[in-house]
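Lesson 9: reading folded outputs for more than one chain in a single document. The general rule is that every protein is listed as its sequence immediately followed by its structure tokens, and records are never interleaved. Here is the first one.
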Amino acid sequence: MLIKLLTRLFGTKNDRVIKRLSLVVEQINALEETYKALDDEALQALTPSFKERYVQGESLDDLMPEAFAAVREASRRILEMRHYDSQLIGGMALHSGMIAEMKTGEGKTLVATLPAYLNALTGKGVHVVTVNDYLASRDAEWMGKLYNFMGLTVGNIIHGLDDDQRKAAYNADITYGTNNEFGFDYLRDNMKFSREQLVQRDLNFAIVDEVDSILIDEARTPLIISGPAEQSTQLYGLVDSIMPFFKEEADFTVDEKSRSVTLTDEGVQKAETKLNVENLFDPSNIEVLHHVNQGLKAHYAFKRDTDYIVKDGKVVIVDEFTGRLMEGRRYSEGLHQALEAKEKVRIENENQTLASITFQNYFRMYDTLCGMTGTAMTEAEEFMKIYGLDCLVIPTNKPMIRNDRPDVIYKTRKEKFDAVAEEIINVHKTGQPVLVGTISIDMSEQLSKKLSKKGVKHEVLNAKHHGKEAEIVAMAGQKGAVTLSTNMAGRGTDIVLGEGVTELGGLYILGTERHDSRRIDNQLRGRSGRQGDPGISRYFLSLEDDLLRIFGGERITAIMERLGLEDGEPIEHRLISRAIENAQRKVEGHNFDIRKHILEYDDVMNKQREVIYRQRREALRGGDLHDEVLRMVEGIAWNISSQVAVEKALPASWDWESFNQLMGSHFNTTLTVDSSGNDLTRDTLSELVNEHVLAIMNGKEALIGSEQFRQLERYVILQTVDNHWKDHLLSMDHLKEGVGLRGYAQQNPLIVYKKEGFEMFQAMIERIQEEVVAILFRIQIAEPEQVEEVNPDRNQSDLSYSHNEGGATKQPARKADSKVGRNDPCSCGSGKKYKKCCGQA
């Protein structure tokens, strides 16, 4: 009662914010006549003036009234559209980093020009995000006229652009594009090998159109970039075929404690001969070296029926502590495939995820995020908890007069569709346009057949052709029009009423089924009643609809039976509509919990992703990673001395044999240390190691010069990081799949995932450092005239992009191997004939 009283006295929070922003609207309106009096040149001159004032320290908030007034005047001249006061409020809400809920037809596209112009004055870039290429292109061209008049540049990111075109678009003041394109460009940039290849700038200010669709509906499925796994699979088989030629001690040594295998010089030479590789330690052969190491480890450090078993044609890990089978788990970094090659079972094509991110975590990286939609308040809690975004309901320019009628409920689905068809025919006879919303394409096609038999001319919409779709939706308000559409089709395009339709009652929205989310239902309703137009909306339901069947169907059935309703006779009552909305709230809450659960797990991965990508980006921008290499070398030197130097023992008794093994495996060298005295300590040994190996490194650098050695260091680090990061992503996926079972052991799966994920990440960082140092010290430097520039570019055509349920990725088909006959044994090592293995793809 007290809350209601206070609300009546002081208004809601929404009312108070609108009141405060209305005071700024008065300031903007006060400038209107002054700006109208300016000629075009004087109006355009305001942009450099605003930029200069910003550089001098004036805030965007202080510039806002003048900047908004300038945009409004430019729009009036160029687009012949003057921003309403309600649109100014919407623009201020966006600039403040809020979500503006604006009804359909209130001009959200024009609203975005206000904060986009204001924030573009910083020179840091503004991204306007839409749901499809058609809308991105339409809005960039349409609103681009306004921005260009005011001296700003506009870019458009759509599918099919090359890197140069993308870079130019991102360097524009304002960039339009789809959520998928922005996200994939971010991931691609974090796979590049030079600063010049980056296309995106820092993520500054984003305006997300249809924000609920992008940040909520698509939040459960990540963007994934995958590479073709079959290349690696064939390489595992090839490497496995040469393993019998290697002899322990002569070609490699095994450290049983750490289960690591180190090639000797003879082993390196043997691998190069067998694989027809000129230099195994050449930067371009890092992948081959990795496979050889994993093959040796599989054959000589892991034992069948001890570390793993072969069951039903699969390699299954045996838990070293419990002896139980760990089905569903796989060794990382290609070791599992190497074991599969060793045991001549099918080498599984791992989903080689190279990079992935959820929209939730991508958009949270922007300095300022805001959005617009016609339906936000039903998801206000999620917007605040996940993104920290407040929602503000913007008042309509004209009062809403649409008549939202109570739902009509039938016993069976057949009765419902008979009634729907009859209603459409009756309304169509009057000339009033009808937009029929269905929740599936299949349902709209069934209804289409029914109408065709009755001779009713109509259009059927689905989400396959955005350009054509927008045209059909735009015509849906014409006299006599009947349009069947899935609930989301044509989103972003206004339905303008044709001549004489207002007198007929406006657009009739007929829903054939309630969606799980009230928001989707409200979007369909919002198609009608734009800008003060009349309109009608009504939902036709049946007890066989999924929502009613699962939630509360029995109770409503009992009411219908008590009323003694005949077949085909509907029930209509606002209490039932309210019961349905309560059911929808339950489903929405459940879906929110799922998205929150997914985000909790992805947040663990996101922290790791931020570390890797931040260091990677710094590497590209700085270019010089020599200090990082020196830190790696110093760290490994310290680790070696720590393992050898025993406190309170004389240096002569230290394990010098292990010392030289460690020096050989890490630095490809040996070091004779005078251990006769007693003044040798762990610290002084570490310094001796460091001095010795740095002298070797400086010698390599002197051969080719500092500049090329810096380039080599950068390439080795980036390539090694990418290889290990790719494998780490796979390991984390397997951990997430298996961690759910920990709940049965009274463990919190999320806590286990965080703990083990962190340990795996730390282990990966250590492996990266060890591998980078090992490669740099084993690498053979050619004479200066023989050195070729490293070209690390990935072939973008080899990458696959996905954003769908489960992250399933369509991989390119295998290419036929011209060296292998159809009836020859397959080169992948499966033991099958080529035509029945890799050749059948």
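And here is the second record, again sequence then tokens.
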Amino acid sequence: MRTSAPLGVTRIRPGSLALNPLKRLASQTAIYGLSSVFGRLLNYLLVPLLTYTFAPAEYGVVAELYAYMGFFAVVLLFGLETGYFRFRSREEWPPATVYGTVLRFLAIANGAFLVLVLFYQGPLADLLRHPENPEYIWWCAAILALDSVGAAAFARLRAEERAARFATIKLLEIAANVGLTLFFVYLCRHAWLADPESLLGSLWDPRIGVGYVFIANLTASLMKLLLLVPQLRGGLGQFDPALLRALLRYSLPMVIIGFAGITNEMLDRAALKYLLPYDPETNMAQLGIYSACYKLSVLMALFIQAFRYAGEPFFFSYAKERDARATYALVLNWFVIGCVFLFLLVTLYLDLFQYFVGAAYREGLHVVPVLLLASALLGVYVNLSIWYKLTDRTLLGAGVALIGSAITVALLLWSVPRWGYEGAAWAHLACYGSMVAISYLLGRHYYPVPYEVGRVLGYLVFGVALYLGSRVLVVQLGWSAPLAGTLCMAVYLAAVVLLDGRRLLRRTAPATS
């Protein structure tokens, strides 16, 4: 006997997902993706501003502290975002109780973290070698706490498929962040240079410097939380201690997975100043160069982020359909096609993308193709990771992530002192490649999905071959880079249409033997 849907919760009609699962996933990804792309493009405009305004060593401070924030963002969320999606789909607890339990726990835990950092910001600043600006530590901690609580409200919007409201609030947050950064770093700084006693000039303190980036971010995070009040207000009254214990048992391994993921993604920027074999000033400059060039892989990161927003709820909600596994395989095919397109878009037109960073940072452009390919493999791993999420084997998933982290740490320690930040880029690629292989093998055992491995690998290899072919046309045959890039991109799109054009028109995943 089917239970009725709780008040205020929309039940998906039986079979409705099967009508057009790829269209549904694509539409959700498009909404999240368009908002993320547009928002990140706004945010991306800050890269030229900051890299043309601050020296590489100064910009390296921003990159370093945001790398540390990435680690703490995972810990302070406690894996409860994924836990919320998992337990919300069960019938033991009402969705409102699941949400309220998650929200209250996050509010209490992050409040305690904020108080702790307030008392120890001075020693922490000394430990990180930034004793002259302990306020940076406090501002970063406040951003983390606000964002962690806000993540619960955003998870609720995703679960309820309210992508438009999700996207609107995200865009407003990013617009506020970009606008305030422009206000402080451009308007107030230039006013101070012209007349320190002017109204705008008095708002710029050169001792804070790049710290205005954190001030802008903190203000935008606070505004975002105010916009999420309707979602937050509805959850504080619901709490179940027994449910919290069950949630934490499921979710805490996700912290290990997330922490390992951040290790793989951001440890290089946190550790470069310690591992590079130069003097401290040069190390910070190299960190700044590497971080700025890393930003050129933003389009791939946006695509993966948008897919995560739409994909995680989709994978859980579609798991009971008869064609679920065949659909997941088809999703991976199209995901890889999209990743290779973005890889080619940036690498084939890198001569144009390079102007988004200052001239002092362009010596690191040669690592961009490696970083893009590594990001593509990360996206493949995101797809493959459904095996441990759908079978509740999050501890095994944590093991895969920890193996990836061990590879990252070992390769950073070995390669960065020898090859500088180039070694960090190749460490990314080796790490994600290993995680894809291990996750695929474990998934075949615990949750077999008929992935078309040959087709997936073929597209990745084909993309790399087209990039290398474009370099031959430019370097050896003297073609212009835009012409060579356009030819190679046309070849790729033609191949996609010939090989997979028919399958794009299908309403459901193809039957598999």
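What the second record shows: Residues 64 and 154 are 27 Å apart (CA to CA).
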